[in-house]
Amino acid sequence: MSEPRSAPSWQNVARRFRPWLEPTLLAVTTGALLLGVIAWAVGAASTADAAWVVGTAVAIVPALTWMALALWRGRTGVDLIAVLSLGGTLVVHEYLAGSLIAVMLASGQALDSAAQRRASHDLRALLEHAPRFAHRYAGDALETVVVDQVRVGDLLLVNPGEVVPVDGQVASSAAVLDESVLTGESAHVERTAGEPVRSGVVNAGSAFDLRAGATAEESTYTGIVRLAREAGAERAPVVRLADRYATWFLPLALLLAGGAWLITGSPVGAVAVLVVATPCPLLLAVPVAIVSGMSRASRIGVIIRDGAALENLGHATTVIVDKTGTLTAGRPAVVDVIAAPTVDASEVLRIAASLDQASPHVLADAIVAHARKQHLALVPPRDASEQPGRGMSGIVDGRRVEVGRLALPESRPRWADVALNRAMLDATAIAWVSCEGELQGALLLRDPLRRDAPRTLRRLRNAGLHRLVMLTGDRAEPAREVATVLGLDWVHAEQTPEGKVACVRAESETATSVMVGDGVNDAPALAAATVGIAMGARGSTASSEAADIVLTTDRLDRLADAMSIARRARGIAVQSAAVGMGLSIIAMGVAAVGWLPPAAGALLQEGIDVAVIANALRALRGSRRGELTVPHSTEDLLHRFDAEQEKLRETLPLIRDTADLLSQVPGSMKALVALRRTRDFLDQRLVPHEQAEETQLYPALAAPLGGSEATATMSRMHAEIDRLSRRIGTHLTLAESCGRIGDDQIEDLLATLYGLHAVLRLHFAQEEETYFALADPDHNI
């Protein structure tokens, strides 16, 4: 039963006075109990009884209030038993038992409230952290304004230790930020001029200027706060299940109480049964476990809108994932540069990137970023213009350059056909580059797979998700390639937002489904799923608002973390409720046959309540099962070798280009020079890198991975890379002794080069997914 929209006035009053009511009630009931014990010890029996009666009577009033509140919320059973047991002890003159029940009831409520406060500490901290003021430049002066007055384009000053008030871009040289509130990561992050900054992060360095890119209402942190305020507002299905348990627990308690009266022939036995049935730990432990799980999730950058979302996530069996921006990086990247035989590949990239500096297109951004990563000297273009659907044209170094979808000549060269075939086979976009009307080369671009995607999906399967489905509006070819690499069960490609909703609804009809997405077009599908999860770090506001759960850090592995937390919290909630009910029922049976007097039963029930609440609080801690902890020294090594491998990956096409050239002009001096460059790359850069991994990185990974067997297959790959590299060196020695590459060498040399290229690509991908993905992406060496 859902809670009415407007609560009665007495409920509001009780909620307002609850922070001091529970400690006061505990103090009064405990004082009355102790006073009665002292009086009884000195022989003042009547004084002792009076003190215990006062303690019991004081507890009856709030117990009646809690019972009324429970009835208003649609819950019955527990508080009614409390009132009956307190009243029953007074009727049968078991004043000590009544006082013990009063202390038990007061301490249980106080303990429950303390546990709730501790469990929701991180959620409250998130709300309290919300920025309220901003320092805005007004000419040469600074003015402090309410954050709601900040407008897009305003230049703001963020002082050391202050919270960034709105989303924007760094307008000064650099900023050092603490993003732990949003991401859960403790390492500081440096943002240079022009880079985006999200509201809610803390300036951990010197003061910097910020150009506002959004209003406060549209900024990241306001959206997160809006979600956090709703956290815990609804009761999860497991809590409603607890209410249903209470509906049969009450008749059982009354039946046993009546049976005890018949067996013992005294109402004292009935009161003893009611004493051990009050308060049922069912409704104490479950909310604590649920809120504890939500709190733990918030600490790693996962905001769960309500307990229902956590409970549903905890028993989901199907996950539906959007491709672009969720399984992939969401940003295209240059994966290959193919140049005409007479042109250098770096020159093709340089002139294309120089021209694309004038384009706002996402592919142009990727080309420029790749060229800058290669440290190429870009020049500003002149007379640059963009034609929709075709690309850019302009003057670079005094020559007319075109980049984009160019019309190919009918008699196109063979290398252009190779580029077209490679783009089709690799499911990449292609941007042609021409200079003065002559084709110079082609750039292949693709949205790369997230490095943590394979490990995340494997963890989801291990957690009990039986069906993994991908939804995308992209073409079928790249969608199927991603699905094959990740081992997904089904792919729905070329889907409209309406089509995505239909697919999600179909999946939700047969199982509890989880939908993960980040774009505006994902919002309807997120709302249609049993549980919607938004990639909120770079996703749209619409998707975050439609989702039940928001990942505030741009890491897909947080999805697996959230799943583990949800399953653990739900399991602990059910476990705590079941154990508490079981112990109470056993105690009720013992009391029913007259073996447990009311006073002893009250003490026993107090112990049960404390035990189950303490057990529920375990949801605040993470399970160590399946977790990998990488020491900081090893993490430093991972980042170092990851950076080195990234540079090696950029040079990797050299091996395949040498093989292509060898197949085209086998006996030419150009092929010999290319083979020599390849040998130098292998001997001077690649093989030393692999040897350093073998002697430094792999031994450091042995402990966190559970032994050297975890890296044994990669060591075998190193041996194969070394063997093929030496084979290429031997071929080069033979060729240089003859002054050319011999015809008898061509077949084996081609097989060796292409084989080495394939082995290296696979080896790099395996290391990135298995080892480098273990490192915190924001960890600084």
Describe this structure in words.
The protein has five domains: 9-120 and 232-292 and 569-620, no CATH class; 131-223, Calcium-transporting ATPase, cytoplasmic transduction domain A, CATH 2.70.150; 304-329 and 450-552, Rossmann fold (3-Layer(aba) Sandwich), CATH 3.40.50; 333-446, Calcium-transporting ATPase, cytoplasmic domain N (3-Layer(aba) Sandwich); 632-774. It is 58% helix and 14% strand. Strand 20 (513-517), helix 19 and strand 21 (531-535) form a beta-alpha-beta unit. It is elongated, with a radius of gyration of 34 Å. The relative contact order is 0.09.
Task: Report the count of strand segments.
Answer: 22
Instruction: Report strand %.
Output: 5-15%
Question: Which blocks of ≥5 consecutive residues have pLDDT under 50?
Answer: 1-14, 231-236
Looking at how many chains there are and whether they match, the oligomeric state comes to single chain
Discrete helix count: 27
Number of domains: 5
Any key phrases for this structure?
22 strands; alpha+beta; Calcium-transporting ATPase, cytoplasmic transduction domain A; 7-stranded mixed β-sheet; 5 domains; 6-stranded antiparallel β-sheet; Rossmann fold; about 775 residues; disordered N terminus
